[in-house]
């Protein structure tokens, strides 16, 4: 039986998570009003690439796989074993995906990570597209913030970069390697004291003579303020090959239980120091709060909560968090959302695996 979902009040994250859950539960889905909450609804290049990648990796069936489509049907079509249709295994293998534009490669990678829990062998996917573009996590956020956090809970994954892709040319290339993983219960409620910061500043080779990566990092360090001493654990400045000019900065804050990541992208006419200051301003706001994870990590962790169970304190109940929780409940996951002043605790006591 096909589950019908309504994306009229959601964006691309809803589509990506719905496809992953469809595969994990071996349950066909029909998604109507795809990206209905966006100025240009329907499948864009990046969303179409996610759908096509899922079809290839899972040997699935899909309709509506075309640009602008506002209704998509997806059937993972696993064969039942011993009468059990749910949570069948994926064989892994090697795949390549070309988004064809500067569409986000990191968001495509994000959609695939949960599949690690049903892999039989390693899955390797090389994605060509935008690695550091607007409205998506820069590559270094995924490599140095999200993946280290998820590895604590059992995710076996690595992300390598061959070439950076900035807007508008894209052309970046990154490779995700996923190994079969068993996730542990996630518990991220009490932050603990902030301990250290790490800076990852990247410039395209065309900007190297302006010392953009160095100036971004300097801008961030001068702007970071907090009444608790923070050790500078790592400062990495990279000059990267790219088809067009661009830069990015990621500030990572480590503390007792989790990490926070704060990002900024270079823009034409924007001083490099300002790029660093913008990321530092976001880090300062985080440090003034109590949540163990940043606001963007909050909704990205929801699918892993559905798989492993646990609790996460989020800094705010954003639209992404609300629609993400609603989507999990559509698949039968019992989600408890308790607001605590400005923060909230999201809990899943009975994950999809059936563990209590």
TrEMBL record:
Chain sites annotated for binding ATP: 110, 296-300
The enzyme's E.C. designation: 6.5.1.4
A GO CC term attached to the entry: cytoplasm
Gene3D superfamilies in the record: RNA 3'-terminal phosphate cyclase domain, RNA 3'-terminal phosphate cyclase, insert domain
Principal location class: cytoplasm
Record's keyword terms, sorted: ATP-binding, Cytoplasm, Ligase, Nucleotide-binding
Cellular compartment(s): Cytoplasm
Catalyzed reactions per annotation: a 3'-end 3'-phospho-ribonucleotide-RNA + ATP = a 3'-end 2',3'-cyclophospho-ribonucleotide-RNA + AMP + diphosphate
Superkingdom of this protein's organism: Archaea
UniProt family annotation: Belongs to the RNA 3'-terminal cyclase family. Type 1 subfamily.
UniProt name for this protein: RNA 3'-terminal phosphate cyclase
């Amino acid at each position: 039986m096909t589950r019908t979902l309504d994306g009229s009040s959601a964006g691309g994250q809803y589509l990506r998570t719905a496809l992953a859950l469809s595969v994990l539960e071996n349950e066909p889905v029909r998604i109507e009003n795809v990206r209905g909450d966006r100025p240009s609804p329907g499948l864009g290049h990046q969303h179409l690439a996610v759908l096509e990648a899922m079809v290839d990796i899972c040997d699935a069936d899909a309709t509506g796989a075309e640009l602008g489509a506002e209704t998509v049907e997806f059937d993972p079509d696993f064969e039942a074993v011993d009468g059990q249709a749910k949570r069948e295994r994926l064989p892994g293998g090697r795949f390549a995906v070309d988004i064809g534009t500067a569409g986000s490669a990191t968001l495509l990678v994000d959609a695939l990570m949960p599949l690690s829990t049903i892999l039989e062998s390693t899955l390797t996917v090389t994605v060509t597209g935008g690695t550091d573009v607007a409205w998506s996590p820069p590559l270094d956020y995924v490599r140095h913030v999200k993946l280290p956090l998820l590895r604590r809970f059992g995710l076996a994954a690595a992300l390598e970069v061959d070439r950076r892709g900035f807007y508008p040319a894209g052309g970046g290339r990154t490779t995700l390697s996923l190994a079969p993983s068993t996730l542990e219960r996630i518990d991220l409620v009490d932050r603990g004291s902030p301990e250290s910061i790490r800076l990852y500043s990247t410039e395209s080779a065309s900007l190297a003579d302006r010392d953009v990566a160095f100036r971004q990092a300097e801008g961030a360090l001068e702007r970071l303020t907090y009444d608790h001493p923070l050790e500078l654990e790592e400062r990495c400045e990279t000059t990267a090959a790219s088809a067009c000019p661009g830069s990015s900065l990621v500030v990572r804050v480590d503390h007792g239980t989790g990490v926070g990541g704060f990002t900024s992208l270079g823009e034409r006419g924007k001083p490099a120091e300002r790029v660093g200051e913008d990321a530092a301003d976001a880090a300062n706001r985080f440090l003034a709060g109590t949540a163990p994870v940043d606001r963007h990590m909050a909704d990205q962790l929801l699918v892993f909560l559905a798989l492993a169970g646990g609790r996460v304190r989020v800094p705010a109940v954003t639209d992404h968090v609300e629609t993400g929780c609603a989507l999990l409940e559509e698949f039968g996951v019992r989600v408890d959302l308790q607001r605590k002043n400005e923060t909230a605790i999201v809990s899943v006591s009975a994950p999809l695996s059936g563990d209590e």
